[in-house]
Write a structure and sequence with these properties.
globular; 10 helices; 13 strands; Dihydrodipicolinate Reductase, domain 2; Rossmann fold; 2 domains; 5-stranded parallel sheet; 23% strand
Length: 331
């Protein structure tokens, strides 16, 4: 299979290449695509050297699958061009997520949304993916009414420029090209993406709207506060979930433990709970712990969800969609 990776030199693109290799996705020809500045350079993958292409050059190689991670504007312009050439595009930007004709997919939850007519498939927001994997089995059990989420999102979600800013600040050196308007080391920034007219940021609205689409339920009310933290290894979320019915903690634990892609790490007696650097980093699992009844509200629990945002939150989820499409004969 001829596979293009658009944005191959970025953090997510690099992780996509790593995951494709790890999972032994059937590739006969890799087509790494990056900016014109990188075009012509060599990229090593699976013991071979591959020449980085421009988008136009990559399109002309007629890939059967294209994994896009190069920003929304690039996806809006180029995803349809690839799709017109009978290439399946799995897009990691927010460009297509809320398009009614484009499936927004977490394979463990709604792979049924993808059919032969779908040439563009949207990969959800990283913070949404890890949350809905926990919500889905609990919604099936008790029917979710409302979700309140506060996120603690790693600088890796912004990209290499943000990682460089954090590490440069930590060394005490002057930052030449900061990703953030404020210092991130030893600080928290309660803004991810731009503010909307309603006072929420675009990142917060992504979580609200994407959750409803993936879960196929407009009745689930969601409110979010997204915060950038000086952390590596993954995103963390404090989530408060209100149900229609009274949840039993034992059944909650059992449902989560049985759900694919979810690992329960919850032992207060031994101070065991999920942490991004300790547990999530380089794992494809979504970890959940601190599961407890909310003593201030009926039919409500609290939990803590952690996942590697570059893997399950981006690269791995995209590759899993492609794997499922191969199994279904759609690729």
């Amino acid at each position: 299979m001829r596979v293009a990776v658009v944005g191959a030199t970025g953090l997510v693109g690099q992780k996509m290449l790593q995951v494709l290799a790890e999972r032994q996705f059937p590739i006969t020809e890799l087509i790494p695509i990056a900016s014109e500045n990188s075009a012509g350079n060599q990229l090593e993958w699976q013991g071979k050297m591959w020449t980085i292409c421009t988008l136009q050059q990559g399109l002309e190689k007629l890939p059967q699958l294209a994994l896009f991670s190069a920003g929304g504007e690039t996806s809006i312009e180029w995803a349809p061009k690839f799709a017109e050439r009978d290439c399946v595009v799995i897009d990691n930007s927010s460009a297509w997520r809320m398009n009614a004709n484009v499936p927004l997919v977490v394979p463990e939850i709604n792979m049924h949304a993808v059919g032969s007519q779908n040439k563009i498939i949207a990969n959800p927001n990283c913070s949404t993916i890890q949350m809905v994997l926990v919500l889905k089995p609990l919604h099936d059990l008790y029917t979710i009414k409302r979700v309140v989420v506060s996120t603690y999102q790693s600088v890796t979600g912004t990209g290499k420029q943000a990682v460089d800013q954090l590490m440069t600040e930590r060394r005490g050196d002057r930052v030449e090209n900061p990703a953030y308007a404020y210092t991130i080391d030893l600080n928290l920034i309660p803004q991810i993406d731009i503010f909307q007219d309603n006072g929420y940021t675009k990142e917060e609205m992504k979580m609200i709207l994407e959750t409803k689409k993936i879960m196929e339920s407009d009745s689930i009310a969601v409110t979010a506060t997204a915060v950038r933290v000086p952390v590596m290894g993954g995103h963390s979320e404090s989530v408060n979930i209100e149900f229609e019915h009274d949840p039993e903690l034992n059944k909650v634990m059992q449902a989560l433990q049985a759900f694919p892609g979810v690992k329960v790490l919850d032992n207060p007696n031994l101070n065991q709970y999920p942490m991004p650097l300790i547990h999530a980093a380089e794992s494809d699992d979504v970890f959940v712990g601190r599961i407890r009844k909310d003593e201030s509200a009926r039919n409500t629990i609290n939990c803590w969800i952690v996942s590697d945002n570059l893997r399950k939150g981006a690269a791995t989820n995209a590759v899993q969609i492609a794997e499922e499409m191969v199994k279904k004969g759609l690729l």
